[in-house]
Design a protein that fits this description.
elongated, 24 helices, alpha/beta
């Protein structure tokens, strides 16, 4: 036998190669038919690539989170119908991939968030989620029952299949090796289901289904957590994340592959996140078995788990005859850690240069665009309305909307350039509604950015309407008189009312433009500038807005950027108004936002932290007025406004979060509407 014959894929080998895939999908909650069509499409693609194990995101059949939909029997029965169709479909595939999909299952009246393992027209079993979220974002703990160690129950309603369908703490003995799964929060803490199934259940592969929402930094945290778990439990991890957005949540998607503490990255910008896709990775399971034999700590844990008389072990389901593929298919290759050119186990890829600024703003851009895209398309809006002020926030929202238009109104869909331009104009309608307080510069900026991106633009002065509104209000409060704030607030309320009316006529979505800094300080008008269907920048601090616009100006070179960046930030609700005069300097307001809502510090400790980290000179460099007396004054105003602002915040539209600091009383920072700021303002 020559060398080629000895090394042929079908030859003898100690390797145990399998091919795994993470299926990243964007689904709509309750859209069973379209969700199922997508699941089948990616299942077909998985089989074509001869994938051994394909993992889908959490709750992929009904869409996640279904929240109170699960209390309606039809919602549950439709999931079972969709599952049965998918199970039948898998029997028709030429390659018998094992699929892991997510749905809601019911046992004796209790609902469970489960993984369903399917292969070759057979339901192998279901694994319920154990650790149920009880945070501000998700309500699994309210809607579902948790799985528990050793659980194994036979489900009712599947008797016609001719075999029992079990749900519980399961490990599947498959032709290519033992495998099990967990769902999202199940891996967030050490121990628990993942440890039990990997060590006591001998699972060589863990399928991890997820629907985690996005914020800057969470992607790296996921990598670190799963790397640690794959090392601690000496196993292989295949993790699939949901992509999409709804109700202000953004799901960045992505696929993560780990084995024995080694991360196998997806070699694409942003790790392949923010899009649908099938991500494939080969693994050698012999490598896991070898490590388990040579790792003394693991051997001790394994011995304790298997000899214990009290430890509850997972239940093994023998699936060796299910038709799933064996290891070492000819197409599979041994996974090596390099992705660059040098092909070294020891040297990193020196050729890759990371532009941190570009990477940061690209991630923010993709997150916000995903939120915008899904809000518009899943809600069926054909048009949008943006109220232009000529300021930085509305400018940035207009640019983001134009990036969506570039992707949606492609030259491929609209070969005729004139028709494409017309379609974009019909999609995006921008209105400037100036009074005498608006400068020629800001009016020009509003007009110029819309012309630059090809959006419809109309300037509709409202000074006469404002004058009439003042007269009406004076009659209504005769004898009281109107103060400065009364006169300021009339303007944004008029604009909001007109914007809402034009949206009703055009059947359009009103896109809000307020930033997180203003929301935290409650520097906006109730019934005015926050009146929108979605607020694109509601989770973006003003510092980020300013830095992002400066970055875009350098990258794109549009003259209108220079005009914008030369103007001072102002709501232009009265002559000579400047935002910094009203709120204090932006960098300090963003610092107050982070310390109060992110770090959960009251005023005393906020000031102590600032004192420890800023010199007098550094504060004065931020703003010449920033003496310690002024910093204390601004911080006190910020805390008082934020804590007493829920009556405003509760009316805010959904806004995508970009960081752990977010003002959304429906999910984060739930302050009572009648709260006193007293407990936050105490001083040493």
């Amino acid at each position: 036998m020559n060398v080629e014959e000895r090394l042929a894929p079908s030859g003898e080998t100690a390797l145990q190669l399998i091919r795994t895939a993470a299926v990243v999908m964007n689904v709509k909650i309750g859209a069973f038919e379209s969700n199922l069509a997508g699941i089948m499409r990616w299942a077909k693609a998985s089989a074509e690539q001869k994938v051994s194990l394909a993992v889908y995101p959490e709750g992929i059949i009904p869409g996640y989170p279904s929240e109170d939909y699960i209390y309606y029997p039809d919602h549950l029965s439709l999931q079972r119908q969709a599952l049965r169709k998918f199970v039948a479909f898998t029997a028709t595939l030429p390659f018998k991939t094992v699929f892991v999909v997510g749905m809601t299952e019911v046992y004796r009246g209790m609902a469970y968030n489960v993984q369903v393992w399917v292969c070759n027209g057979i339901i192998l079993g279901m694994i319920p989620k154990t650790e149920l979220a009880r945070d501000f974002s998700f309500t699994d703990g309210r809607n579902f029952n948790p799985g528990y160690p050793g659980m194994c129950v036979e489900l009712e309603g599947y008797e016609d299949l001719g075999y029992p369908v079990y749900m519980g703490d399961l490990v599947f003995n498959l032709p290519f090796g033992r495998a099990s799964g967990i769902t999202c929060e199940d891996y967030w803490r050490s121990g628990g289901a993942m440890e039990r199934r990997a060590i006591a259940g001998d699972a060589l592969v863990m399928a991890v289904s997820n629907a985690s929402d996005w914020r800057l930094g969470t992607y790296q945290s996921r990598i670190e957590q799963l790397n640690t778990r794959s090392s601690d439990y000496a196993t292989t991890v295949v993790a699939a994340y949901q992509v999409g957005a709804h109700a202000g949540r953004v799901y960045d998607g992505g696929a993560l592959f780990h084995q024995l503490g080694r991360h196998f990255p997806v070699n694409e910008p942003l790790g392949g996140r923010f899009r649908e896709g099938l991500f494939v990775q080969d693994f050698d399971l012999t490598r896991v078995e070898t490590r388990r034999r040579t790792n003394v700590t693991f051997r001790d844990q394994w011995t304790e788990a298997h000899r214990s008389q009290t430890l509850v072990r997972p239940v093994e389901i023998d699936c060796r005859q299910c038709g799933a593929p064996t290891a070492n298919q000819p197409e599979y290759t041994y996974p090596l850690p390099w992705k660059g050119k040098n092909k070294s186990f020891f040297l990193p890829d020196f050729d890759t240069v990371v532009d941190r600024e570009k990477e940061y703003f690209d991630e923010v851009k993709e997150g916000l665009l995903l939120a915008f895209t899904d809000f518009v398309e899943k809600n069926g809006f054909k048009r949008i309305v943006i109220l232009e002020s000529g300021g930085r926030d509305s400018f940035l929202v207009t640019v983001l909307a134009s990036l969506y238009a570039e992707r949606h109104f492609t030259a491929e869909r609209y070969p005729d350039k004139r028709k494409r331009r017309a379609a974009i104009k019909d999609f995006a309608h921008c209105f400037s509604m100036p009074t005498k307080n608006n400068s020629d510069e800001t009016k020009s900026i509003a007009r110029d950015i819309c012309a630059q991106v090809g959006f419809s633009f109309k300037e509709v002065p409202i000074q006469k309407l404002f004058n009439e509104a003042v007269k009406c209000l004076e009659k209504m409060v005769k004898g009281k008189g109107l103060n400065r704030m009364d006169l300021q607030n009339i303007q944004p309320r008029l604009r909001a009312a007109l914007g809402r009316s034009v949206c009703a006529t055009l059947m359009a979505a009103l896109i809000g433009t307020g930033n997180a800094t203003e929301r935290g300080r409650v520097f906006y008008t109730k019934g005015g500038d926050q009146q929108a269907d979605i607020n694109m920048l509601g989770g973006v601090p003003k510092d980020v807005v300013n830095a992002w616009l400066a970055y875009m100006a350098r990258q794109w070179g549009w003259p209108v950027f220079a005009d914008l960046l030369e103007t001072e930030a102002s709501a232009e609700l009265e002559p000579g108004q400047k935002d910094d005069d009203e709120m204090g300097p932006v960098p300090l307001n963003d610092l107050f936002l982070a310390l109060l809502l992110g770090e959960r510090l009251a005023l005393r400790d906020m000031l102590r932290v600032i004192r420890q980290n800023f010199t007098d000179e550094e504060l004065l460099a931020l703003d010449p007025r920033a003496t310690w007396e002024m910093v204390e004054k601004w911080a006190t105003q910020y805390v008082r406004s934020c804590i007493t602002g829920p009556h405003k915040h509760n009316q805010d539209p959904p806004s995508p979060a970009t960081s752990h600091v977010h003002i959304d009383p429906k999910r984060y920072n739930r302050f009572p509407e009648t709260a006193s700021p007293e407990g936050f303002l105490f001083m040493a």
